Amino acid sequence: MCLNVATSHSKDSVFFRDGVRRIDFVLSYVDDKDGERKQERRKVYEANLEKVGLELETEDKSESEDGKTYFVKVHAPWEVLATYADVLKIKVPFKVNDIPDNSEMPMNWLSTPFRLPEHIMHPEPDFFTAPFNKSKSDFFLIDDKDTFFPPSTRNRIVYYILSRCSYFRDECADKDKKGIKRLLNNGTYTAAFPLHDSRYWTRSRDDKCESERYNLYKHWARFLCFFKEQPLNLVRKYYGEKIGIYFAWLGFYTEMLLFAAVVGTICFIYGFLTYDDNQWSKEICSEKIGGNIVMCPLCDKKCSYWKLNTTCNSSWQSHLFDNVGTVFFAIFMGIWVTLFLEFWKRRQARLEYEWDLVDFEEEQQQLQLRPEYETKCTNRKMNRITQEMEPYLPITSKCARTCLSGATVLLWISLIIACIIGVIAYRLAVYAAFASIMKDSPTTHLEVVGPYITPQLATSVTASCINFVIIMILNLMYERVAIWITDMEIPKTHLEYENKLTVKMFLFQFVNYYSSCFYVAFFKGKFVGYPGKYAYMFGWSTLRNEECDPGGCLIELTTQLVIVMTGKQVWGNIQEALVPWLMNWWGSRKARNHPESLYSRWEQDHDLQGFGQLGLFYEYLEMVIQFGFITLFVASFPLAPLLALINNIIEVRVDAWKLTTQFRRPVAAKAHSIGAWEEILNGMAVLSVVTNAFIVAFTSDMIPRLVYMYAYQPEMNMKGYINNSLSVFNISDFLTDSRYRDYRYPPGHEKQYSHTMQFWHILAAKLAFIIIMEHVVFVVKFLVAWLIPDVPSDVRARVKRERYLVQEYLHNYEVEKLKIQLSQNSNECNCTPMIYPSLSKHEVLSECL
Question: What does 67-79 look like in DSSP terms, one character per residue?
């Protein structure tokens, strides 16, 4: 933070013109010709701000680079800061922490290349803290009142005032007319933001200014720092705990992905090294075996018979992901996700202690009501905790709003399902079109597409691309709907608001992103029927249900996963980095022609993009959706954690770069955890065990191969597996019968076209595998969760020790204060407290009087 030392006035400054009072917030507006109502609102609002004690200074539009924007600079003096710090129970230091830190790890020198300078990692010493009390201000370590509250705390206090100050003369006439948010929405002000302390590429001209933004850019936001640790304490000090917690979680998630990526890559390499041992692919590609097996048409009318060896390439590709290593990796990821969540809880508990967030949730629920809740809820009732009257929403109104909100979410989820059904219909219809392009010869491939692409693969790729486009369009449309219905519910606190919005957005995006993968994994090829009795979608004779490639549906699931996951990550990085940069470049085009000395600090920040109250929400949502891809369907694509790791290494620095260089400084906010996202991650971790077990059992061909090798092959090898896995259908136009994927009795058998006993053996083996895998993974998960406590023992001990010391110091402070007061009173009335050793404080004072 910057010291309030008067210097020659510069427009690139964070102080008022006097060079002493710090600018804690900036409001901007444009004085329209027809804006008399807006002008009246601003006049009343600013007058009310001054009544509260804030100090304002206005920069005329003639001083701005565009010649039409006014800037109102806001300063909070000590009395205002002290009053509201008391109201918000902001914790401040009262003694240097003297508990020894024994967190140094052995062989710590190995981490030296990844470390940052100490003054960056720990920008301030560790203190014992307690909620600020204005009446006991001498108890706290106040060396300088102007610098006692850091800028992040100052802008948080000022925003609290701005969001509750009325802009109507008679507050009783319309209680809804208050708060900076409504003034921004109705255009009275164009922006409201705290200032960055310097330019990001250079230090402040004031030598006594710390230039924390510059330090963050130099040591954190540049991509060349990707291997360095994150300066989380500096991030927390500059941006607040809420943003600090996000980057702590993202960094920890990225570190844990390293282990999953290494194991996944080893499993992929195993599939590559066992390429030549793939007996079933050799049989498919063999001219003597696959070249002599004629397969039934994959669609009606337009599709012809084809030979099995045309799927040679997809069979080899499928082996890279569908091998014994897949089973091991699915089990490993079930354990990995548990370790990730348990170790994060420990990391989070340590941050809660270090950042004074241990008791924060209770404080927020009790004290920080949303301004919208206060204005829209006209009913009042007694709060049992604070014993004060507060607004509340009647239960009938709350139920009605919740029902309407739930119905809206269900409607949009139904819309997604309708779109997915449309994509499935596209797959069924277009496959026939691709097939019709093929030559009459059953052994040829698509001429237009190329010699290695089958109609199945072409259909799968184009359908995945179309599905991705639909996903992005629906996301844009639903985003506004989710915010609207959450506003309609009128949540009580900011935490409750974010949790409600989180659930709505996640439910929608879960269905939006994952439904196509669920279809390929668990529905495609499962309800096909057999020749002469095929199943059709909705009974339409033109839409025959899809079959899997003879190599299995796993390769198609991999294709779907790669396209959607990679496309989302690439599009997300472009949207996050390129779009703000282009908008800022265009918005500051005029100012770039002015000398730097005339381009004021508030104008520089005004030309940046606003981070918004939900800016962090979208960052979490992006990462949680990615988490779903690498856990729910990881059995089909072991390289998914590696792709996620590469993306997240970039993501950490992209998020840091855009926050430091492309966005206005967000209002500091507190958060003791990642909120509702933690429960969502826990739910996805449990679901991932089930989905991966089903993928291995029903989507992969692993179980049928193992059953064949151990139960139907005396030599315990895979010779003859392909012929065994295909059923026979009698046709009169060919010299030989055609084949199809299934386990059914051949024509002429007394149970012709009924499932064979091998089918039931395989089904039993699949169900047994699911039960065994789930139980093994869940037992290990619960054992790991039990063995690893959520709060480290040293942190638990330090929390108890600090609470004890806080009480002791407060007690000693009260005793010393009482002694001083009694001594002063005794001197005034010639009484000595020692005369009344058995009397209380009030009794002694009464005797003296």
Answer: SSEEEEEEE--HH
How many Å apart are CA 474 and CA 468, to the nearest integer?
10
What is the helix (H) or strand (E) element at residue 767, kind and residue range? helix 757-787
Q: For the chain, first and last CA: distance in Å?
A: 49
Asked if 233 and 245 touch (Cβ cutoff 8 Å), the reply is no
- pLDDT tens by residue, 76-107: 999 999 999 998 889 889 888 777 766 555 55
pLDDT attached to residue 767: 92
Q: What is the dihedral of CA 652, 657, 658, 660, to 10 degrees?
A: 120
Decide: 695 and 635 in contact? Cβ < 8 Å.
Answer: yes
Paired with 22 in beta bridges are: 15
Burial of 325 (0-12, 13-18, 19+ CB in 10 A): buried
Residues of the chain with pLDDT under 70: 1-10, 33-34, 101-111, 170-176, 207-208, 361-368, 385-388, 432, 434-457, 539-542, 549-552, 589-598, 732-736, 827-849
- What 3-state DSSP class applies to 728? strand
Strands 738-741 vs 306-307: parallel, antiparallel or unpaired: unpaired
Query: How far lies 680's CA from each of 422, 628, 777, in Å?
Result: 29, 10, 19
Instruction: State the pLDDT at residue 339.
Output: 92
Q: What are phi and psi of 840, to 5 degrees?
A: -80, 175
Query: In the prediction, which pLDDT does 495 show?
Result: 78
Q: Is the separation of the CB atoms in 392 and 377 below 8 Å? A: yes
pLDDT of the residue at 6? 41
Cα separations in angstroms, 231 against 238, 246, 256, 356, 561: 11, 13, 19, 17, 34
Q: Given CA atoms 446, 447, 450, 451 in this order, what sign does their dihedral have?
A: positive
Please tell me the predicted confidence (pLDDT) of residue 25. Answer: 96
Beta-carbon contacts of residue 387 (< 8 Å; ≥ 6 apart): none
Q: Please name which of 467, 430, 440, 438 lies closest in space to residue 454, comparing C-alpha atoms.
A: 438
CA dihedral 698, 702, 703, 706 (to 10 degrees): 170
Residues contacting residue 755 through CB under 8 Å, at least 6 positions apart? 742, 743, 744, 745
Q: What pLDDT sits at residue 739?
A: 86
pLDDT score of 595: 59
Distance CA 478, CA 464 (A): 21
DSSP collapsed to 3 states, 796-834: HHHHHHHHHHHHHHHHHHHHHHHHHHHHHHHHHHCCCHH
Give 129-150 as a 3 state SS string.
EEECCHHHHHHCCCCCHHHHCC
Structure tokens at 448: 């237009």
- Residue 518 near residue 288 (C-beta atoms within 8 A): no
Burial of 218 (C-beta count, 10 Å sphere; 0-12/13-18/19+): middle
H, E, C per residue of 206-242:
CCCECCHHHHHHHHHHCHHHCCCCCCHHHHHHHHCHH
DSSP, collapsed to helix, strand or coil, labels residue 548 as coil
What's phi and psi for 727, nearest 5 deg?
-95, 165
Q: How far is CA 466 from the centre of its chain?
A: 25
